[in-house]
């Protein structure tokens, strides 16, 4: 292989993949012509595409061209291996099925390793909810559904009721106040009605002192606030209640029905009275439902709810945890909603909307990026570490009309730091962030420009790669870099590539979220990454790339003279692109050679911004599996019209 002209590659020897149909002596003596030139990733495959392999069993072997320096010993060993390989016959269709089976096995094993302890129950709830809604809902877009806002003072069970209505464990529920801060949306339905439920943070009154703020919101002014002056900490803490109330007000403004939740066990409080006065004064035109939560006993619930008649609304005793009274509550909710008709063309295929998860360490600007993309204060931005708790899902339409689902997440701390905090909420927030990575398509890993890349950033990067998600690296707060010039970005990228080795393939975007500079590049890069992640190579082109890589650098030989051979290669899956190599023995392909093959696939076929997986299937394993299947089938005999094991 030599370089010719304008960077094209000239091959002076035939392809190293020899595919010979067993039924025709004409094809057995046919040799493939040399490939003239190609411009990656669009390769010349006229020879491979001219032979139909869909119906003919093939016997294929990879014959690496020996170098002139290896002499006669090399040729003898090669001929001995070829003789044994020529007897290996297979059907391409069967190998395609085997490749899909290998991908399923690998995915199941990897998912088991990465599964969180409480994820199984959540998946059951969500899957049950999806099955139920599939036959009931009418694929109405989220922005067209009526809103139902849940409001109340802190720690009355708003998030528990939210989880009960939408199904699953979308919101963090902990027996401590101030857990929910941002608006959290979820779809729900009851009968023929479908609507969006909005969870909000606890509404605090302005009469409270700063000490009460800290207690109600469970905010620490010391942990995670290193480098921030004391005055700035106190100012940020003082602004927090008003920011939470602003989020709750936004939810109430867009809602058709307001669920005002109170605590039946704690009884009527002054804060409840102030919230009712606020609702009656500003939103008397909306449907307001008073739900008395934590009434697990129906008999005691009536007594507990009677205290709240003085608020001027009919109290309804419910229990968000056990579900008591939620049916009557949903009847009242639907009575205040307008029924939304579904689209005229129900058979229309729903457009796939990729999800972008924004992850990173605390205080790197994740929420600022989300707000800058949306053009509104969708989430609370504060120098207080750990402001974001839940994973916030938001629909977004880019300038080109491409729709995305943005997921803002909590800052991912080290396990040791979480243990030192001793907060269950912090641990749950990190778990939610990891789950956001799992249910996303593309992950935007945000790092701070002036901060060093830490070990925690590397661990997050490794998790993204293991999950098989597309990724782009967002260098936020780029304006803080002093004395920038044309080479600054180049040197910075080299440093990032060196430290985040597991994301060598990820594109890098520079932004300043506070000023709104460069944030539009994030969605453009994410769209490109998703396209690459969903791309599929034809089998002919893939085998062309693989065999050219083998011709350029054959697998290393063992001390016994054996060399690895590739019989067939196919792309068995997308998202992420997964390639299955059928070889004589996978042990003959060391990790260094597998990395070389991945590098060649990327250089010749692209796949920027997405991890690719290479699975290696040994011929011995395939023959062993076929032998087991044959023996099992031979041991099965019919008895009385049924299949039974022969004794």
UniProtKB/TrEMBL annotation:
- Which ranges are annotated Basic and acidic residues under compositional bias? 114-128
Q: Which InterPro entries match?
A: G_ENGA, GTP-bd, GTPase_Der, KH_dom-like, KH_dom-like_a/b, P-loop_NTPase, Small_GTP-bd
Q: Does the keyword Nucleotide-binding apply?
A: yes
Q: What UniProt keywords are attached to this protein's entry?
A: GTP-binding, Nucleotide-binding, Repeat, Ribosome biogenesis
Q: Which domain of life is it from?
A: Eukaryota
- Renumbered residue ranges of the record's region Disordered: 114-139
Q: Which GO terms describe its molecular function?
A: GTP binding
An example GO biological process term is:
ribosome biogenesis
Mind naming one GO cellular-component term on file for this protein? Answer: chloroplast
EngA-type G domain sequence ranges: 146-341, 354-534
Q: Which PANTHER family has this protein been placed in?
A: GTPASE DER
Give the protein family. Answer: Belongs to the TRAFAC class TrmE-Era-EngA-EngB-Septin-like GTPase superfamily. EngA (Der) GTPase family.
Task: Identify this protein by name.
Answer: GTPase Der
